[in-house]
Amino acid sequence: MPALEEDARAKVNLTLRVVGRRVDGYHDLESVVAFADCADRLTLRSGVELTLTTSGPRAEECGEHADNLVTKAARLLGERCDGLTFGAFALDKHLPVAAGIGGGSADAAAALRLLARTNKLELDDARVIEVARLTGADVPVCLKSQSCVMTGVGETLLPLRLPRLPCVMVNPRVPVATKDVFKELGLKNGELRVGVTDVLKAPKWPGEGASIDVWIAALCAGTNDLEAPALKVEPIIGEVLAALNAAEGTRLARMSGSGATCFAIFANDADAQRAAHAIQLAHPLWWVHAGALS
């Protein structure tokens, strides 16, 4: 059987509001999520044994294979599907890890898509959905890798039709642990961060066919509530945001997820490419990607 392949696209939180912390300790979020045109690449050659090999420029950052979210997702699915066909996974790792762009979650979601194809399962199979949720908070949104509004602890997804948004993504090559950022946020179990009226008020996002300008205006009215605590955990995020805000043509600059990756949106590809080139020259050790979100 030929190997099957899937792209594991980077996830970007265009907005991220922390509604509060539930009594079980998990945080309720509300986020506009888009996906970038940069990705890891995962292949699967079906077989009896479950194995994982890694390659690519970020392979050394993947850690122990036994702890990788690819193998975790596969094992969890195997526990729920008798006779599941596994095989040899090969991960070509390009996205920085612990970076706020769901790199590991995207890899796990790609693994679930590959296993679903191999075993003739639908992606909306209850077992696949359950495993995505158990593997990680960002895995369900990465499973479809389509722009949406994500709420709850990542389990509720409302599709959005975003225009193509030229962007630059920058990571200073410094990992940031999500748990450290939420600890700095400091919410207690059962504590709301916003008022009840705000919770009940559904945000209105532009409809299908809305222009880049309309979307940028709407996104500028939002925020990333994890940006301030992340800056305390890792101050270099401020340098990244400053570099993006200083770039000619930047329309919006913000941190994604819990950091440290930040992004800037531009009106056109030429401005984005020029900005990326200038930032890479000034900071040769940073990871810089010019492309588009959708």
Characterise this structure.
There is one protein chain. By secondary structure, the chain is α+β, with helices and mostly antiparallel strands. The protein has two domains: 4-159, Ribosomal Protein S5, domain 2 (2-Layer Sandwich); 165-293, 2-Layer Sandwich (Alpha-Beta Plaits). The chain has ten helices and ten strands. It has helices at 69-80, 103-118, 126-135, 139-144, 178-185, 196-200, 212-220, 227-233, 236-246, 269-282, and strands at residues 4-21, 27-47, 50-55, 86-92, 148-152, 156-159, 165-171, 250-255, 262-266, 287-293. Strands 1, 2, 3, 4, 5 and 6 form a six-stranded mixed sheet that branches. Strands 8-9-7-10 form a four-stranded antiparallel sheet, sandwiched between helices. Helix 1 packs parallel to helix 2 and helix 1 packs antiparallel against helix 3. The chain is globular, with a radius of gyration of 19 Å. The chain starts with a strand and ends with a strand. The mean pLDDT is 95.
